Amino acid sequence: MKFDELFEQRSLVASKLKDVIRDMGYTKVSFASKADISRPTLDRLLNGSIDNKRSFDRHLQKILKLLNMTVEDLMLYHSVPKKVSTATVYSQNAPMNHEMSDKTKKQYDLLLDLIDLCAIYY
Q1: Dihedral pair phi/psi, residue 119, rounded to 5°
Q2: Sign, Cα dihedral of 65, 68, 74, 78
Q3: What is the model's pTM?
């Protein structure tokens, strides 16, 4: 696919860009900053709603340069499947030897604090 044809395929380009940005671990803000694009413009690109071909081309060139990708690389990109965790415990019916990680303990304690606050105010 040629670069000039991408404007007509804005929704497909938007979908591919979302996948690439997510898979590379960027937030919209950090990616927009690195690509030297305003956040609202990046949002319009990612929604496929940008209606100015010149602006679309200019910003997409910046993005492809940052990602070190060609048009073909972008259009053939497939999202990386998310890893599924098989050792998740959702209740207090956990096995006897199961131990929560430190991060999980902190989150659980925070949740209990929020429940206590709700009980006080409601």
Answers
A1: -65, -35
A2: negative
A3: 0.62
